[in-house]
Amino acid sequence: MLTETTGRTPQGLAAELAGLKAVDDWPSVWSGPPQGGSGAFNEWCGRYGWQPQTFDRQLLVETRSGGRWTFYDRIGGEWSPLVSLTHYPWQVKAGSAAENNEVLTTAAAVWPAHLEAAVGVLGAPTWTGPWDAPDFPEPPHPSYWHSREARMRSRRPYRFAYWAPGGDVPGTPFIVLSQSVAFPTWTTDMAGASAIVLDVYAPEEFQGSGR
Predict the structure, then answer these.
(1) Considering just the CA atoms, what is the radius of gyration of the chain in Å?
(2) Which residues contact 76 (CB under 8 A, 6 or more apart)?
(3) What is the pLDDT of residue 94?
(4) Out of the domains of life, which is the source (predicted)?
(5) Residue 69 dihedral angles phi and psi, to the nearest 5°
(6) Which of 17, 130, 196, 199 has its CA 20 to 30 A from that of 146?
(7) Which residue from 175, 179, 135, 127 is spatially nearest to 155, judged by alpha carbons?
(8) Percent residues over pLDDT 70 in the chain
(9) Global pTM value
(10) Count of CB atoms within 10 A of residue 152's CB?
(11) Smallest Cα–Cα separation from 195: which of 111, 119, 137?
(12) Alpha-carbon gap, residue 156 to 141, rounded angstroms
């Protein structure tokens, strides 16, 4: 039996994206929070309704709409400055290898609804398509998504859409919605899995040397 582990829906994804659109000072987000426990930290999180869930290594927060996000910093484990935020709106795991085909059919069935939910908030994506599309774009920054060579090896991202920042607002992120299929899913002897992930990347000028 397949197990969906997030308990979220496409409507939940739309709510998370609407919350992102309410962020009006991305440079302050990318600069990262003060270390946990201080009044300044609570003020930083509270500005956008982010409730901290952990103080260990990466910062994990819960939003007003119930989604969980992991905040990744440039160095790793230092909290700031940040380079990306990650949220999982859907994730399914097979109970056995016999269910791997079901993982693939379920993944194909849920992707359109999640993409539609994102389009409803963000508008048409800059590009969308599968992993093997001949016009699959190269990432504007190496940390955003796999290069063609890596993608051909891993089929990851399996399905993909991204929104480039528009206008001249400093710090506006690249937003990437992608679906992955875990390697065991392609085998006959290991239980597979698939996930949809929402990644929000700092534009290149805020990436520094990368993490």
Answers:
(1) 17
(2) 211
(3) 98
(4) Bacteria
(5) -125, 145
(6) 17
(7) 179
(8) 97
(9) 0.94
(10) 12
(11) 111
(12) 17
User: What are the structure tokens assigned to 166, written together?
Assistant: 């528009």
Q: What are phi and psi of 201, to 5 degrees?
A: -110, 135
d(CA 28, CA 44): 9
DSSP string for residues in 66-89: S-EEEEEESSSSS--SEEEEEEEE
Distance, CA of 203 to CA of 142 (rounded, Å): 12
Q: Which residues contact 134 (CB under 8 A, 6 or more apart)?
A: none
Burial of 137 (0-12, 13-18, 19+ CB in 10 A): middle
Burial label, 37 (beta-carbon count in 10 A; 0-12, 13-18, 19+): exposed
- Pick from 73, 51, 75, 63: which is nearest to 14 by CA? 63
Tell me how far CA of residue 139 lies from CA of 76, 132, 158, 168, in angstroms.
21, 15, 15, 20
Helix (H) or strand (E) holding 92: strand 82-93
Identify the residue whose tokens are 């739309």: 14
Distance (Å, whole) CA 55 – CA 37 = 9
Mean pLDDT for the stretch of residues 75-88: 87
